[in-house]
TrEMBL record:
Name under which the protein is recorded: SMP-30/Gluconolactonase/LRE-like region domain-containing protein
Record-linked InterPro entries: 6-blade_b-propeller_TolB-like, Hetero-Diels-Alderase-like
Range of residues in the leader sequence: 1-26
Keywords: Signal
Gene3D superfamilies the record matches: TolB, C-terminal domain
Domain of life: Eukaryota
Amino acid sequence: MPKIHADSKLKMKYLCPLILALSAAAEYSGTVLYQSPTNLWLENIAARANSHLLITSAESPTLYTVDPRAQSVTLNEVFTFPNATALMGITEYKPDVFAVVVSNLTLGPPREALGTVVIWSVAFDAKTGAVSASPAVSVPLLPNSNTAAPQNAICINGISPLSSTVILGAESVSGAIYAFDMVSGSVTSVTSSPQWIATTNASAPVQLGINGLKYHDGYAYWSAGVEELFGRVRVSLGHHDTIEAGVVEVLTPIDNPYTVAGQSADDLAFDRAGGAWMAVHPSEIVLFEQAANGSWVQQTAAGDASGIDLTTFNGPSAVAFGRGEEQEGILYVTTKTGQLIAVDTTGSTY
Ligand SMILES: *[C@@H]1O[C@H](CO)[C@@H](O)[C@H](O)[C@H]1NC(C)=O
Ligand SMILES: *[C@@H]1O[C@H](CO)[C@@H](O)[C@H](O)[C@H]1NC(C)=O
Ligand SMILES: *[C@@H]1O[C@H](CO)[C@@H](O)[C@H](O)[C@H]1NC(C)=O
Ligand SMILES: *[C@@H]1O[C@H](CO)[C@@H](O)[C@H](O)[C@H]1NC(C)=O
């Protein structure tokens, strides 16, 4: 008996680390296609129909483009916005026409200077490919109904189209969703939640509230830092273009099994099966899938949930699926340390 006991103990000793290693391992690996030599903070991605990616930076007023299929991937300038320091969310709202959040931004904690925030429209000519850019919505000091939030500050972050003229935008400080009309220039409050508010504690490891936003199947799906939540709210266009919002639903808290101090939910993207892939700081891509019973289950799809291995996913800021031939299963990821990463989601790594 003592021998068997010792034997099983020995087995446990060697099996346990293996089991732990497997359960902690992410299902998909990432390939770094590009690393900025200056660690330029890359902030958001939009994939064009021609498979090129448009990339914004929170540290530069230049909109970049990359061809992720190139042998050697480089960032090339598309347009540099005047009188600004940073770009945040980008989204396509008409074929090859993109909305971009342009502002004077200070980082740590991220704040866009009041009066400097403008949503621009950037259009690519279908025949010549020529770029034209024009300011569409000048964002004023927004009405802030969440009185617990820092006042007199904004951070329009993730944006997503509700229609071919109206863009929804997450405001990460007051904790609200706004609608921006790219034709009339109007700004409308859609809804707000105490769960979306930024912290007023400047030394807290997670600063921003609502961050990522994706309009999908009639809902604005959102991620929120501070409280680390994934949720949705039904939003629709009513008569005379009024905007109607349902109740704010929390779908699931974002797991933090390693109690990582700086875990913070960022941008998200939907795959064809309806799974939501989310960039989560400091080093993880989380996949949320709806189970048959309706609840949302999550797994670490790529990166390191413990926040220790920062080599490949060092501060994931945005995710977008590629477009075009052999691109639709590739998840592109940007990081705040200047990485562009490709994750092939069509086959797992083991
Ligand atoms: C915004 O940044 C631009 C570019 O650095 C600068 O010229 C401008 O004065 C800034 N505006 C404000 C209001 O800070
Ligand atoms: C730059 O932005 C400021 C407000 O932020 C504005 O007063 C000024 O007119 C702008 N300058 C240009 C050249 O657009
Ligand atoms: C602010 O955040 C820091 C870092 O997490 C924490 O140590 C401190 O207690 C917080 N302060 C308040 C007033 O909550
Ligand atoms: C729903 O299904 C998931 C996946 O099978 C399971 O993990 C979860 O416990 C279920 N939830 C309920 C409330 O039954």
